[in-house]
Amino acid sequence: MKKDIKKLVLAYSGGLDTSAMLLWIKETYGCEVICYTADVGQGDELDGLEEKALATGASKLYVEDLREEFVKDFVWTAVKANALYEGTYLLGTSLARPVIAKRQIEIAQMEGADAVAHGATGKGNDQVRFELTYYALKPDIKVVAPWRHWDFKGRADLIAYCEKHGIPVTATTQKPYSMDRNLMHVSYEGGILEDPWAAPPEDIFLMTRSPKDAPDSPTEITLTFEKGEPVAIDGDRYGAVDMLSKLNHLAGENGIGRIDIVENRFVGMKSRGVYETPGVTILQTAHRALESITMDREVMRLRDSLGTKFAESVYYGFWFAPEFTILRKMIDETQEIVNGEVRLKLYKGNVIVEGRRSPNSLYRERVVTFEDDAGAYDQQDAEGFIKLQALRLRLRNME
After folding, report:
1. d(Cα 235, Cα 20) in Å, to the nearest integer?
2. Annotated catalytic residue 44
3. Residue among 13, 19, 94, 178 flagged as catalytic
């Protein structure tokens, strides 16, 4: 059913899909379209967007710099949670969607718009992430999702549509894979990558060099964390955006951060994705190493037991759900004592932990030592401990 829409805010990247959508929405709904682009670190992809948007029919374009909020509130939260979806995916796209959608709703409210639109397909996860955020923040908003309604069957049709109407796009029928970039990662899927047996072409990668082309000598760095968040490299302090940018560079030069996975989408199908997440790959390893000496065993197990729920909540789009608010508060509480330094070696795709230290360390050398512990631990105590643990095992076969 066609919605009665007077003004709409379109999440606009200037890529193939949203370029076609801008004109299609105006033709279909006859409404004013305001374009909105979130700068979450996609670099030169922002060049020339305003001219293109206005030429295609937008009344105006907002370009919003969300990099600080994205890294500080979203990426660092995932680092503190050691969040991994299905054990491998660091959630780079998933984390960007709620911050983008949140600002889109704020612009819609400022502009008095009655609708918002996004470029996600009806097969993917992003449609859910965008729309759950929209409805959580503005329950009465109207949502337009062109991929679920228009007659185009695929990106080849969109390329032809843009060519017909003189809309410049960089995608081609020979190289039609989809790419999403932000300060945390780049994702590649679709097109030539849809065959899970086919290796990704080397020339697609933007943030990392191949491990075989990385330097033959390792790069050594020391990362400093405060309350679970990275704040310094080799003693030099950085803000959130500069920190992640620096780590991306160091990791990328050393061939760190590539994965090739088949994941389970929220809608039920399996999807092959190729990802580059260089800086956060370093942070995951370093953060876990620091937690190993600062975090109580049972606290860590409790936090890790909720890790799957945390990662799934991010992946599925429930960032603004009440249960996720509770999870975030719990994660922040566990990070109060995660302070200290981790020494790392970066070498040909590997992140190697070489040392860790903390003023909050629970590690006690005089207790764990194989040498004289000067009475710090009575080894005879272990006998009773073992017998108590063995009691239920003995009872099974006791006459």
Report:
1. 48
2. no
3. 178
Does this model's pTM top 0.85? My answer is: yes
Tell me which of 97, 129, 303, 356 is the catalytic residue.
97
Strand residue runs (E) in the chain: 7-11, 32-39, 60-65, 115-117, 142-144, 178-181, 186-189, 219-226, 229-233, 236-237, 258-264, 270-276, 340-347, 350-357
Longest dimension (CA), the chain: 88
Distance between CA atoms of residues 176 and 123, nearest Å: 17
Active site residue 126: yes
Considering the candidates 13, 126, 155, 187, report the single residue annotated as catalytic.
126
DSSP string, 90-112: --HHHHHHHHHHHHHHHHHHHHT
Instruction: Walk along the chain (399 residues) and give the pLDDT tens digit of each residue.
Output: 467 999 999 999 988 889 999 999 999 999 999 999 999 998 777 888 999 999 999 999 999 999 999 999 999 999 999 999 999 999 999 999 999 999 999 999 999 999 999 999 999 999 999 999 999 999 999 999 999 999 998 878 998 999 999 888 876 665 557 788 999 999 999 888 999 999 999 999 999 999 999 999 999 999 999 999 999 999 999 999 999 999 999 999 999 999 999 999 999 999 999 999 999 999 999 999 999 999 999 999 999 999 999 999 999 999 999 999 999 999 999 999 999 999 999 999 999 999 999 999 999 877 776 776 677 778 888 999 999 999 999 999 887
Amino acid letter, residue 104: Q
- Please tell me which residue in 17, 94, 103, 180 is annotated as part of the active site: 17
94 part of the active site: no
CA distance 81 to 79: 5
- Whether residue 239 contacts residue 67, with contact meaning beta carbons closer than 8 Å, is answered with no
* 373 carries an active-site annotation: no
